[in-house]
Amino acid sequence: xxLRFAWIVGSALTLTGPQAPIAPSPSSSAAAPSSDxxxxxxYDEPPRLLKQTKPVYPRKAxxxxxxxxxxxxxxxxxxxxxxxxxxxxxxxGLDEAALTCVRQWRFNPARKAGKPVAxxxxxxxxxxxxxxxx
Length: 134
Prior knowledge:
Layout: E1 4-9, E2 14-16, E3 48-51, H1 59-63, E4 68-76, E5 82-89, H2 95-102, E6 106-108, E7 110-112, E8 115-117, E9 119-130
Antiparallel strand pairs: 1-9, 2-9, 3-6, 4-5, 4-9, 7-8
C-alpha cells in the first residue's frame, strides 16, 4: 500500500482579541498595516476566507511520521492579507510549513462601521499521514 498524506486545514477560523505581539512575517515584503490599523476584536463583520492554500508536508516530517495540528495566530490586515503570523501550538518539523501556508491565505477583511479593519484569528493547520502500516 502506498503512503500518502491527507492535508486538513481548519475551515472555520476562531476569531480572537489581540494578545501577545506577533512578529512580522519574515517572508512578507509588503508594508505592515499603518499604525492606526491595530487588530480589533470588536467589529461588525468578521473576516471571510477567500483563498485557502494547501500546506506542503515537509519530507523529513513525513518520513519520520510526524503529524498533528499546528495552531497559528494570524493578523488579517485591512486589505485582507495575512500581515503577521505566529505559532501558538508547535509541532516540531511542521511549524514552518504551516506558517508558509497561512501566509498565502486571502480574506475579505473584517468590517467596523462599513470600513475594512485589521483583525486577529486563530488558524489550525493539520497534517495527517494515511495509509501507513503500523
